[in-house]
Backbone:
């Protein structure tokens, strides 16, 4: 079997012990790697009902069969844990040299349990582990900590670090490597709860592939196609190009989802950023696309906090950060957004969740539910001053918002829960669900909550196959298809920005996998693998107490119309969403209550997942 070591490394931080555990070929072939393998491992290594921030909770880093091959965009890793934000399964992806070096330690995955007695580093060097003190970098921002680790260990070592938000168990804290982030669902808080500032890896154990010449041929072909029109958007403007498109479609969430258009969209658009501030284009390791656009940030005359870093360096900005720290908070000043994005990166916070939670608080204050005079839409200084307060969990507003919008709404009371912008506790990304109603379905049923990376149902809305303002049960099977494709890509792992270059994702993936592993895998088998992974996530959530009431949207989206031009409003009545959800359950083969029946468990060969404590 090429592409795998066939084992994972289990590390107990409490006892400072490690064990190597075989990964049978039957498991690897059924779950591949990345997110898929992570779901299987979390199910095995994490008891039901565990508090995600308790020492016994598992934090899983998964590599993939493609990491280390010349296939473009394959230098990625997945992080999987029970989310402290949602208490449901959470998986997030990140990129670059940590993936390459991590796999060369000799493991297909790292499973970390227990907690250190004091702030520490976990160093893994060719499979040998040791714990070192992190006393000198505890409290440092993720970029400063990374730089210090680089000085201490040297260029062959690569680290995944948390910022102050992770240390303080902010429920949407991230794990960072090379200024890319395993961003959603609070994985940084899980790491912080273990007093683990960083995982530092170095390795030399390369994995052979079954057909080296075939892999090189696949890599050449894929790289060639990655320069084509399907990825042009990412090279030219990057994801920030979405802002004006979404604004035109009334799909740009504005002022905590009260509108779908932002009057000042033009001045904060990707086009204007490109003209006024863009300085460079970068890429993850082993990527031929290069979607990272870097913008210059002029020095601020009055630095608001030591973390603000007013040194005039570049900032990487994506659409999701732009929408969440811009229109969602009513902010039209691009330099405020750039500064806020950089602060989030340094402090280690998910820009979507923190932006949405602040926007929610701004609405609460405007409605008189929170008594904070300067907490108002459009107040950029307030946004910038709140970010470090949240990361440090400062008493009052900082600590309240560090809990995320769902828990904050429960504490604020009144009708705040009706407009807290989350599903299952995870804040919505930048896709207005009333204007993109197949995406609304994807948000409602998503295993990790409202999410645009595990469901690509917006693609259905943007196609002629659906009426995006009138969601239909007929679109449910199309939504299922986008989820399955995402599960395959996230488990192989490749970058989703490549998805447009595949004429037949399943057949072409099967060919790559055959060449890497030597398996006689087919496109049909990979379709089953993708369904299996989505269903395994659901089984995990069922085990943790999921019920069908969670598959919904906040009341705002189901009761308030969204102006979409003239006197027309887009509405998404609860009955319509319920009909779409019912059709989704049917398309997945689940029962009417959304539970996975035994026949599907058997069909998808999921018998070895633990469904009890
Ligand atoms: S396209 Fe962008 S996100 Fe994807 S691997 Fe390349 S640089 Fe990274």
Residues:
């Amino acid at each position: 079997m090429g592409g795998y070591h066939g084992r994972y490394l289990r590390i107990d931080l409490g006892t400072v012990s490690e064990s190597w555990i075989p990964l049978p070929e039957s498991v690897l072939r059924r779950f591949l790697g990345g997110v898929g393998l992570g779901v299987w491992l979390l199910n095995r290594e994490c008891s039901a009902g565990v508090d995600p921030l308790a020492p016994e909770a598992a934090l899983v880093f998964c590599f993939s069969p493609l990491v280390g091959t010349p296939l473009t965009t394959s230098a990625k890793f997945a992080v999987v844990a029970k989310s402290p934000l949602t208490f449901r399964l959470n998986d997030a992806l990140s990129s670059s040299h940590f993936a390459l070096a991590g796999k060369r330690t000799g493991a297909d995955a790292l499973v970390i349990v227990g907690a250190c007695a004091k702030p520490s580093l976990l160093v893994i060097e060719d499979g040998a582990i040791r714990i070192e003190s992190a006393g000198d970098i505890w409290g440092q921002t993720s970029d400063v900590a990374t730089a210090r680790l680089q000085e201490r260990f040297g260029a062959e070592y690569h680290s995944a670090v948390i910022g102050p938000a992770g240390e303080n168990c902010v429920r949407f804290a991230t794990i960072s490597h090379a200024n890319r982030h395993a961003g959603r669902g609070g994985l940084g808080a899980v790491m912080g709860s273990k007093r683990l500032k960083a995982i530092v890896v170095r390795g030399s154990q390369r994995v052979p592939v079954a057909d080296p010449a075939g892999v090189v041929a696949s890599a050449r072909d894929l790289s060639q196609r990655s320069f084509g029109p399907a990825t042009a958007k990412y090279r030219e403007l990057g994801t920030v190009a979405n802002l004006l498109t979404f604004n035109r479609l009334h799909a740009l969430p504005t002022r905590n989802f009260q509108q779908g258009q932002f009057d000042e969209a033009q001045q904060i658009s990707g086009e204007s950023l490109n003209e006024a501030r863009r300085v460079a284009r970068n890429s993850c390791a082993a990527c031929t696309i290069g979607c990272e656009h870097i913008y210059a940030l002029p020095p601020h005359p009055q630095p608001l906090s030591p973390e603000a870093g007013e040194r005039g360096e570049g900032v990487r900005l994506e659409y999701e950060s732009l929408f969440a720290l811009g229109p969602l908070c009513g902010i039209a000043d691009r330099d405020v957004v750039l500064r806020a994005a950089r602060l989030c990166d340094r402090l280690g916070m998910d820009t979507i969740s923190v932006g949405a939670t602040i926007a929610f608080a701004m609405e609460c204050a405007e409605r008189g539910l929170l008594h904070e005079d300067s907490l108002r839409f459009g107040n950029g200084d307030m946004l910038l001053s709140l970010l470090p307060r949240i990361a440090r969990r400062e008493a009052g507003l900082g600590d309240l918002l560090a809990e995320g919008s769902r828990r904050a709404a429960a504490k604020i009371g009144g009708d705040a829960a009706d407009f807290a912008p989350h599903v299952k506790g995870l804040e919505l990304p930048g896709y207005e669900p009333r204007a993109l109603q197949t995406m609304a379905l994807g948000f409602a049923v998503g295993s990790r909550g409202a999410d645009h990376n595990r469901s690509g149902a917006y693609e259905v809305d943007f196609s002629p196959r659906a009426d995006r303002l009138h969601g239909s049960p007929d679109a449910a099977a199309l939504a299922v298809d986008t989820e399955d494709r995402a599960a395959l890509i996230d488990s192989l792992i490749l970058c989703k920005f490549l998805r447009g270059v595949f004429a037949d994702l399943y057949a072409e993936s099967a060919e790559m996998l055959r060449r890497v592993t030597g398996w006689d895998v087919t496109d049909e088998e990979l379709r089953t693998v993708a369904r299996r992974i989505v269903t395994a996530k659901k089984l995990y959530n069922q085990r943790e107490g999921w019920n069908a009431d969670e598959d919904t949207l906040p009341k705002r989206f189901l009761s308030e119309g969204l102006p979409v031009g003239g006197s027309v409003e887009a509405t998404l009545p609860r009955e319509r969403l319920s009909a779409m959800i019912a059709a989704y359950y049917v398309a997945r083969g689940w029962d009417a209550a959304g539970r996975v029946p035994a026949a599907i468990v058997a069909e998808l060969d999921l018998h070895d997942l633990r469904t009890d404590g």
User: Anything to note?
Assistant: DSSP finds 25 helices and 19 strands in the chain. Residues 73, 95, 234, 283-284, 287, 289-292, 495, 497 surround iron/sulfur cluster (CB under 6 Å).
